[in-house]
Every structure is written in structure tokens, then in C-alpha cells.
Design a protein that fits this description.
With 455 residues, this protein is an all-alpha fold.
Length: 455
């Protein structure tokens, strides 16, 4: 009878799962606290900027962007500035699914490094995070129309990766970075499911498989981020909550179709424009002057058409203005398009921030503009439009679905928002593909030379 001790037969996946959870929890704690601290500082700065006189509301964002450009170019010596991939050659243009669509907006903001390091989060350039933190504070804190969600994901992954760089944490380095990113987004939005899905869906841009270990690491981090949000009673992003149901199935169809097409198309056009100016090759000073001048003109237009609260910041003030003023129809569409142009100009000038929250506002305003037409309440049209803006413009439909589920509301209202996500995804894909094909044909045509006829 063999009485020797049997070898350890614990499955390898169990060991991996345990390390993933531990890494997600530790990285999530570091990422959530760091991202929450930076976002809270931004919120405080924005509060002070919002109380300034109107002429200062025009100047403050320009100063902030100028400081950000100086930080990234001088202190960072250009290394901290993010770069995007080259556009595909014209002969390769064809209709692609959203997962591999070439004009992938997530490469055009602060999530670029998050995408680039997906699946190997331990390689994230976390040493550049302090430089970028000051650039984010200067840009978004001074009122530039840029968001805080990409900074939260970026800084969250950076904090987790920095923690994982310690010798004792090498086994959990990857899950720490992943959990830190999920925690940063969850702490910002107060929705753990959004933090989980957001970071995993970004990873799919590099076709990183969604494994059990990645789900556990991101899920643990998202749970920590939500805990930080609840514990410290954070109130960074106020999402539109649909309270009034659509009333009938026919209205569900009409609202989802009209609002989905409107929000998806406007957001897709904005996304294409942002990607184009993000890849604009020119001297930083030239970009800052041209983009800054355009941004100043747009802010002045928003002050005339709407109100000071709608002119600065990521977009929450514009939505609050629309809700309080009762504005409808073309007024809201004009404000939505001006907000879209403002974010594009801020990116062109060299601002450092995200575009997720601006797309929420653009979609919300676009949806509210059609509320009287489709017979929907402003809150339902706004919530559906916000989800449509994320799906059609930022090209993260699964994250949009997670947001809709997390926000809640009457069952039929949730169903309307989910249907809007589907419509906006299709509309955004069609519009973006059409713009890409049109641009490619023009660029190809401009390179064609006429050969002399043979005699």
C-alpha cells in the first residue's frame, strides 16, 4: 500500500483566478483612490471656473490647454504626448464590423495607452502618469470641453501597473493594472458593471480574449471602485435616469429609431472629426493657436445661444441647462453640434482629456431635441440619446448596454434605451464608414496625375 503524500493537484486555473482577484482588489484600491482624487480636484477647479465672468469663461479653457501643451511638450519632451495609429490605405477601405473599424475613436484620447497595453497591462507606461495628471488637471479643470472618464481609466491602470511593478507583486501585475482601470471608471460613474465592461471592451480593440482571469481581475477592481464611490459619496457624473415609460410598443420603436439615428449620426460625425484632428500633423504652437481660436469662437456662441453652464466643462452643465430651461427642438440640436465642435477644437488645440462624457452630453442633447417629435419625455429621450452617443460615437455598444442596465428606470424605458443602442450603433457605423470612404476617395483623387496623350 502506497502511503506517500499525493502531489498538489489544484487546477492551474484556480491559482490564476486567485491571483487575478488579489491583483484586481489591490490594483483596484490604488486605481480608484488615485482616479477619485484627481477627478475630485478637477471638479473643484471646474466649480471655481464656472463662477467666473463670461469673458473669463472664454479665456480659462485656452489657458488650461496652453498649460497642458507646454507640460506635455516641454516637461515630457514630447514623450508624454500620445500618438495614434496611421489611417488605413485607401485601397484597403471596405465595410468592417465595429470591432475592427479603422476610425477607432478610443485611439484618439487618453485610452490609447490603455488599448495598447491591453492583455499586458504590466507594460503600461505608468511613469508618465504624473506628467499627464497635471496636463489633465490643466485642461479639464480649467473648463475645456473634455471628459474625465478616460483620465480615470488611464490613471487607474497606471496606479495598478505601478503597484504591480514592485518585486513582491509581479504575479499580480497584469490583473492589478486591469483592476485599476476598471476601478477608476467605476469610482467615477458609480456603476461597477460599466467599469468592468468598459475596460474589457477596450481590450477587444486589440482582440484580447475575455478570459476568466481577466473578468475576475476587472470585476474585483470594479467592485472596489464602486465601494470607494459609495463610501466617499462621490458625485462626479450624473447620468440621465428615464423615469417616464414610453407608453406603448409603437412608441418604443419610434423613439429608439429616431433618437438612435440622431444621436448615433451626430456622435459618429463628431468622432470622425476628433480622430482627424487628433492625427493632424503640425507644430504644437500652430495647433494650439488654430484650435484655441476655434474653441473661443464656439464658447462665445454657446454663451449667446445657451448659458455659461453649457459653455464649459465636459458637458454635464449643458444637460443641466437643457433640463432647467426647457429648451427643445433646433435650439438643443444647435447646442449639441456646438458642444461637438467645441470638443473637436479642444482636441485639435492639444487638450488632454477624454471624450466619453462629452459624447454622453452630445447624445443626451440630440435625444432631447427630438423628444416633442416622438412624444417622449425629455428624461427618456435624453437617457436614450446618451446611450446612443456612446454606442454610435465612442463605438462601445456593450458599455452603453451596461450603462443602461446600471442606470435603471421603468422596464419599458430600459428596453427603449437598449433598442436605441442598437439603432445608434448601426447609424454610427454607416455614417463613419461613409465619411471614411468619401475622405479616402478625395485623398486618392488628389494624388492622381494626368499623363500626356501619346501622339
Amino acid at each position: 500500500m502506497d502511503d506517500t503524500t499525493p502531489p498538489d493537484e489544484t487546477p492551474g486555473w484556480l491559482h490564476g483566478s486567485i491571483y487575478a482577484i488579489i491583483g484586481g482588489l489591490l490594483g483596484g484600491a490604488a486605481g480608484a483612490l488615485f482616479a477619485a482624487f484627481v477627478t475630485d480636484t478637477i471638479k473643484g477647479l471646474l466649480g471655481r471656473v464656472s463662477d467666473l465672468d463670461n469673458w473669463l469663461l472664454v479665456v480659462a479653457p485656452l489657458i488650461g490647454i496652453g498649460v497642458a501643451v507646454a507640460i506635455l511638450q516641454s516637461i515630457g519632451r514630447g514623450e508624454a504626448k500620445q500618438h495614434i495609429d496611421d489611417a488605413p490605405a485607401a485601397e484597403h477601405i471596405r465595410f468592417r464590423p465595429w470591432r475592427s473599424f479603422p476610425l477607432d475613436l478610443v485611439r484618439a484620447d487618453l485610452t490609447a495607452d490603455v488599448v495598447a497595453s491591453a492583455g499586458r497591462e504590466e507594460t503600461f507606461p505608468w511613469r508618465l502618469a504624473p506628467i499627464r495628471t497635471f496636463a489633465i488637471l490643466a485642461s479639464v479643470g480649467m473648463g475645456a470641453p473634455l471628459g474625465t472618464e478616460s483620465p480615470a481609466a488611464h490613471l487607474g491602470v497606471a496606479a495598478g501597473a505601478a503597484l504591480g511593478s514592485r518585486p513582491w507583486a509581479r504575479r499580480i501585475a497584469r490583473s492589478a493594472g486591469l483592476g485599476g482601470g476598471a476601478a477608476g471608471v467605476a469610482a467615477l460613474m458609480g456603476l461597477p458593471l460599466v467599469g468592468l465592461v468598459f475596460i474589457l471592451e477596450l481590450g477587444r480593440r486589440r482582440r484580447v480574449p475575455i478570459t476568466l482571469e481577466r473578468v475576475l481581475g476587472a470585476g474585483a477592481g470594479a467592485a472596489v471602485g464602486w465601494f470607494v464611490n459609495v463610501t466617499f459619496e462621490l458625485d462626479f457624473i450624473r447620468l440621465a435616469v428615464p423615469r417616464m415609460p414610453p407608453g406603448s410598443l409603437s412608441k418604443v420603436i419610434v423613439i429608439s429609431m429616431v433618437v438612435g439615428v440622431a444621436s448615433g449620426a451626430v456622435a459618429a460625425i463628431t468622432g470622425t472629426a476628433i480622430y482627424a484632428v487628433r492625427g493632424w500633423e503640425s507644430r504644437p504652437l500652430v495647433k494650439a493657436i488654430i484650435g484655441g481660436a476655434a474653441l473661443a469662437a464656439i464658447i462665445i456662441s454657446l454663451l449667446i445661444v445657451a448659458a455659461p453652464s453649457a459653455a464649459v466643462g465636459p458637458g454635464g452643465g449643458a444637460v443641466a441647462w437643457a433640463d432647467a430651461s426647457g429648451a427643445r427642438g433646433w435650439t438643443l440640436m444647435i447646442v449639441a453640434m456646438l458642444r461637438a465642435a467645441a470638443t473637436t477644437a479642444a482636441v485639435a488645440a492639444g487638450g488632454c482629456g477624454g471624450v466619453f462624457v462629452p459624447f454622453l452630453a452630445i447624445g443626451d442633447l440630440s435625444g432631447r431635441a427630438f423628444a416633442p417629435v416622438v412624444g417622449a419625455s425629455p428624461d427618456l429621450a435624453g437617457a436614450a440619446g446618451a446611450a446612443g452617443g456612446i454606442a454610435g460615437g465612442y463605438r462601445l455598444p456593450v458599455t452603453a448596454i451596461a450603462m443602461v442596465i446600471g442606470v435603471g428606470g421603468p422596464y419599458s424605458a430600459t428596453l427603449t434605451c437598449l433598442a436605441t443602442v442598437a439603432t445608434a450603433s448601426a447609424a454610427g457605423l454607416g455614417v463613419a464608414w461613409g465619411l471614411e470612404a468619401l475622405t479616402s476617395r478625395r485623398s486618392t483623387g488628389s494624388r492622381v496625375t494626368t499623363q500626356p496623350a501619346l501622339k
